[in-house]
Amino acid sequence: MKRGVVLLVLVFAIVGGTFAQENTPTATPYRRGWLGRILHPFSSEPVPQYKDPRLRGLALDLQIAPQTIRLSEVRQLAAKVTLTNYSKRTVTLEFPTNQRIEIYLKNSAGQILTKWSDNHAITEKSATVLINPQEHVEYNETIATRDLTPNKVFAAEVFFPQYPELRTRQKFLAMP
């Protein structure tokens, strides 16, 4: 009986050590507990490393509602931006205006077709956003699709103007 338990513990230690190794030195994975690593060994998502130490532990995610947009049906593209704090400390973001994010629609050559801030009033009202550990901030915005042409691939790029390192992009296809 004792041999079986010792063998089982030894197998878990070897398997856990094998899956815990990280091949990319630039990305630090979100550190889960040993039980979470045993139950979900392949679900480690790396958190990007930023030069600004105030941003460490933050991960930015962009979701565009339809991956293929029908221009005859859709006039506005819905973008859901999620900023998650995976660190063990509270992250403070300070903004001099009421604008938190900026969205660009770009063509395949990288030229900016539409800016989100062109259609929104931005005032000089400073604010502070606190993101507690293991929590997130979500922004649901829309941007006009009037400059898109059918049967081409475009990219939606989202970033924080005050913190240019916090940047993500996602490609999508525009159909007639």
Note the main attributes of this structure.
2 helices; mainly beta; Immunoglobulin-like; 14% helix; five-stranded mixed β-sheet; 2 domains; flat; 42% strand; three-stranded antiparallel β-sheet; single chain; 176 residues; 12 strands
CATH architecture of the largest domain: Sandwich
Query: Main beta sheet: strand number and arrangement?
Result: 5 strands, mixed
Count structural domains.
2
Would you give the CATH topology of the largest domain? Immunoglobulin-like
Which range does the strand content fall in? 35-45%
Which outline best applies?
Answer: flat
According to CATH, the homologous superfamily of the largest domain is Intracellular proteinase inhibitor BsuPI
Tell me the strand order in the biggest sheet: 4-12-11-7-8
In the predicted model, the low-confidence regions spanning at least 5 consecutive residues are 20-30
Radius of gyration from the alpha-carbon trace, in angstroms:
21 Å
Q: Could you say which structural class the secondary elements and strand pairing correspond to?
A: mainly beta
Helix-strand string: HEHEEEEEEEEEEE
Report mean pLDDT, rounded to a whole number.
82
Provide structural commentary.
The chain has 176 residues and is mostly beta strands. It has two domains: 47 residues, no CATH class; 126 residues, Intracellular proteinase inhibitor BsuPI (Immunoglobulin-like). It is 14% helix and 42% strand. It contains two helices and twelve strands. The protein has a five-stranded mixed β-sheet with strand order 4-12-11-7-8, with no helix packed on it. Strands 3-5-10 form a three-stranded antiparallel β-sheet, with no helix packed on it. It has a two-stranded antiparallel ribbon with strand order 1-2. A hairpin with a 5-residue loop joins β7 and β8. The protein is flat, with a radius of gyration of 21 Å. The N and C termini lie far apart (68 Å). About 6% of the residues have low confidence.
